[in-house]
Specification:
The protein has 239 residues and is of the alpha/beta class. The protein contains 7 helices and 6 strands; from the N terminus they run βααβαβαβααββα. The longest helix has 24 residues. One 3-methylbut-3-enyl trihydrogen diphosphate (IPE) binds next to helix 1.
């Protein structure tokens, strides 16, 4: 019974807008503060010895927001990569980006490629940034890739396995999240890591993302450590 430190923590960083509204500020001030919370989360994850940290930064559905907010979020990502990449690299952080890159502006695509290339051999924390990411879209792309192989005669449909699907996803090579944290009190998945969270533990925290700090992170880990993951079997205690 009880789990140790999770290997992979994935975070749905929610509540920037409400954090700002609560203070009578425009929504973008919440997003700006949210960047500081990401820096904190990276530092704490490293201290805790977590190997993989995934942050949901922009969903495939977030294009539905007003244009000014979408372009602010695009600008924020650019500034984050430009400003923080060198320090992440110095801290031995490996950056991976998941999500659809084809329909992003070319300058953003280049920055994301650069972040991955520069840090690819780092051996510390892997920071996975989910940007323009949707779990169902990711599965659809994987299905297309496998279907093309079938069409080329390179793949027998009956040999398509769970492992093969996992390898066709953006997250290939990254273990499934042990723990998913969502801030802001919302209790839904919002198209995040649909395939990968089949057996993840979920912790919903009542703090808005800009207020996420070491105490919040610790609360989520403590809650996780009290869980009993059974994966369909029986708990260690019962067996
Ligand atoms: C999360 O905060 C950040 C993104 C989705 C980009 P929100 O912007 O969703 O904040 P709320 O949910 O409106 O408070
Ligand atoms: C999920 O938050 C996406 C990110 C945190 C990037 P949203 O605020 O977009 O989710 P919904 O719309 O409330 O489900
Ligand atoms: Mg939200």
């Amino acid at each position: 019974m009880g789990e140790g430190m999770p290997t992979h923590v994935a975070i749905i960083m929610d509540g920037n807008g409400r954090w700002a509204a609560q203070r009578g500020l425009p929504r973008f001030e919440g997003h700006r503060k949210g960047i500081e919370a990401i820096r904190r989360a990276v530092r704490i994850a490293t201290e805790f010895g977590i190997r993989y940290l995934t942050v949901y930064s922009f969903s495939a559905e977030n294009w539905r927001r007003p244009e000014e907010e979408v372009s602010f979020l695009m600008g924020l990502l650019k500034r984050f990569v430009r400003h923080d990449l060198a320090e992440l690299h110095t801290n031995n952080v490996r950056v991976r980006i998941i999500g659809e890159r084809g329909n992003l502006a070319s300058d953003i695509r280049l920055l994301l490629d650069e972040a991955e290339q520069l840090t690819r051999d780092n051996t510390g924390l892997t920071l996975v940034i989910a940007f323009n990411y949707g779990g169902r879209q990711e599965i659809a792309s994987a299905v297309q890739a496998l279907a093309r192989k079938v069409q080329e005669g390179a793949l027998d449909p009956s040999s398509i396995s769970m492992e093969m699907i996992g390898e066709a996803l953006d997250t290939h090579g990254i273990p499934d999240p042990d723990l998913v944290i969502r801030t802001s009190g919302e209790q839904r998945v919002s198209n995040f890591l649909t395939w990968q969270t089949a057996y993840s533990e979920f912790v919903f925290l009542p703090v808005f993302w800009p207020d996420f700090d070491e105490a919040s992170f610790k609360d989520a880990i403590d809650e996780y450590s009290r869980r009993d993951r059974r994966f369909g079997g029986l708990s260690a205690k019962a067996s």
